[in-house]
Specification:
Layout (H helix, E strand, L loop, with lengths): L19 E4 L6 H7 L1 H11 L1 E5 L6 H12 L14 E3 L2 E3 L9 E4 L8 E11 L3 E2 L4 E3 H7 L2 H10 L1 E7 L7 H5 L4 H10 L3 E4 L5 E7 L2 E3 L6 E3 L13 H11 L6 E5 L7 H13 L1 E2 L8 E5 L3 E5 L2 E2 L3 E10 L6 E2 L6
Parallel strand pairs: 1-2
Antiparallel strand pairs: 2-16, 3-4, 4-19, 5-17, 6-16, 6-19, 7-18, 8-15, 8-17, 9-11, 9-14, 10-11, 11-20, 12-13
Length: 334
């Protein structure tokens, strides 16, 4: 395939059950290739929601960081992380620390923040021996496939995220807020419509209500945009949930989600959300050197269980404040 002009990037392969894939001949200078073809590649991401680029030969973090910068410009610093990451430079991270034998189900990265990433960038340096794919699912299709009564309720009420920060599970205060200073954390929460309470043991409990359905800022189409299933207690492995409830109590789980009015979300609803995601998942096993770009508002992503070593670097870019991404904390806890 010739890569002499951006028009060549129209030639993505489309196969059922797989993300749109672009096979390139190793350009040697991957960062230069990325900068030259940025606009055409980004147009394909807008068209398909996600594009897997195969053949760039990405091998080490500095090279990946240069490719990401060429495609997206300035990378975002992650705030309100739900799990630790290793940093490889400004805005360049490892994938979230999560048990390899447990899936990370479909979600839109940082959908509970006020400034959400418009673009996710992934690069595979080491592929797992088995599993470990980063699946993608179309948020417009999800909204259409879910029961109308359910989506209308979430669209009307939004969804509530509760978090309890501790030293054992999930990201620490420093990893989430960039500081342990109480005054700075409180100011951050106030400025972003996050209700917060310091517990007697010094830990922090927060609540924030966000929209579950938003309009895409480019296409104007309505998208199922949230982390309702991923951060819900019923998505946890049963033995993990049982342990956490036993140690921290149901109100002290590291993270949980509810309907916007504070009503608990039942296990069957969470199962329905995850089953619907599975029906719309496109996946392709990683190969070393792969690059994938994901429209974070149009497309949810997941990480499947794996065995062996796996190294996938991640970046977030194009911060967006969505016009219909409401942020309130006025709820009636139940």
């Amino acid at each position: 395939m010739s890569l002499s002009s951006p028009a060549s990037l129209l030639e993505v392969a489309l196969q059922p059950g797989k993300p749109a894939t672009l096979q390139v001949d190793s350009p040697g200078d991957a960062p230069g290739w990325a900068a030259r073809h940025r606009e055409a590649l980004r147009a394909r991401v807008t068209e398909h929601g996600a594009v897997l680029v195969r053949g760039l030969g990405l091998r080490e973090p500095a090279q990946v960081g240069a490719v990401f910068a060429g495609l997206a410009g300035e990378l975002m610093t992650e705030r309100e992380a739900f799990a630790p990451r290793e940093s490889y430079g400004p805005g360049l991270y490892s994938s979230s620390t999560w048990p390899p034998n447990q899936p990370m189900c479909m979600h839109h990265e940082l959908s509970y923040t006020l400034e959400v990433p418009g673009l996710m960038l992934f690069a595979c340096l080491t592929a797992a021996d088995e599993g470990g794919a980063t699946g993608v699912a179309d948020a417009e299709q999800m909204l259409q496939a879910l029961p109308t009564t359910l989506t209308e309720r979430f669209e009307r009420e939004g969804w509530l995220l509760t978090r309890s920060y501790n030293d054992e599970i999930g990201a620490s205060l420093t990893e989430s807020f960039g500081t342990e200073d109480r005054a700075a954390i409180e100011q951050y929460c106030r400025s972003r419509a996050i209700d917060f309470t310091w517990q007697s043991d010094g830990s922090l409990h927060t609540r924030q209500r966000r929209s579950a359905v938003v309009r895409h800022p480019v296409t104007g189409r309505r998208c199922w945009f949230n982390q309702i299933a991923f951060l819900n207690e019923w998505t946890l492995a049963p033995e993990v949930r049982e342990y956490l409830v036993d140690v921290y109590g149901e109100d002290g789980l590291p993270f949980n989600t509810r309907f916007g009015d504070g009503t608990p979300i039942s296990e069957d609803i969470v199962q329905q959300l995850n089953a619907t995601y599975e029906e719309h998942t496109r996946r392709e096993p990683w190969r070393p050197g792969d690059l994938m770009l994901v429209d974070n508002i149009r497309t949810a992503h997941s990480r499947e269980p794996y065995s062996g070593e796996r190294q996938v670097l991640v970046a977030m870019a194009e911060p967006r404040r969505l016009a219909d991404h409401s942020a309130t904390v006025e709820v009636n806890p139940r």
